[in-house]
Design goal:
The chain contains six helices and no strands. The chain has 197 residues and is mainly α.
């Protein structure tokens, strides 16, 4: 009887991990799109700062954020059709983690836009939060290479701190978004969930 209970618990844990990996795979287009959109936001802001155009960075960022949220909210529903079974604890944890990240960054952005809070520190905050979210996602899904992405974001936070207030920080931000968000999203999407390790 004790062995059966242990086997059931191991099977439950394996099932939860597999569902978490499958969920990460299905949500990976969100990472890819958000990475591309945010890179465009950084490049648009850079173009404004160096006077290549006069379009307000607020207009650029809020337009891109709106596209990203629409894709994540509605595109995710199309990719994540319910299979008639309850979500695993891993899926619930991933949903809560990334939704919490999204809500937190939107609150920071609203405070920055409405309250006039200095915007350059937003990069450092968001990079640190992305490091936290990727690190937790690596633990939840057992997709170990996501820990390197987390470390990359923590390193990006340091770079943003060092480049505070400089136009080069915007170019670095675009690069980080492509390398540490868009490309991992594409890698997760192109690899089968069972192949992660």
């Amino acid at each position: 009887m004790g062995d059966d209970k242990v086997r059931e618990e191991i099977a439950f844990i394996r099932s939860a991990l597999e569902q978490g990996r499958a969920y990460a795979h299905l949500r990976s287009p969100d990472f890819a799109l958000w990475g591309a959109l945010m890179a465009l936001g950084y490049l648009g802001t850079y173009a404004f700062v160096v006077r290549l155009w006069t379009l307000s960075p607020s207009v650029i960022w809020w337009s891109l954020v709106a596209v990203g949220w629409l894709f994540s909210l509605f595109g995710g529903r199309l990719r994540l059709r319910p299979e008639g079974r309850a979500a695993s604890p891993a899926i619930d944890a991933l949903r809560a983690l990334w939704l919490g990240f999204g809500v937190t960054t939107v609150i920071f952005a609203i405070m920055q836009t409405v309250g006039g809070i200095e915007g350059e520190w937003m990069d450092t905050r968001v990079a640190g939060l992305l490091g936290l979210c990727f690190f937790a996602s690596a633990s939840i899904t057992k997709i170990r290479w996501l820990r390197f992405i987390a470390a990359g974001w923590w390193g990006a936070a340091v770079v943003f701190f060092l480049l505070h207030g400089r136009a080069e920080g915007l170019l670095a931000g675009a690069g980080f978004m492509i390398v540490l968000l868009c490309l991992p999203g594409l890698m997760l999407w192109l690899r089968r969930p069972a192949a992660h390790g």
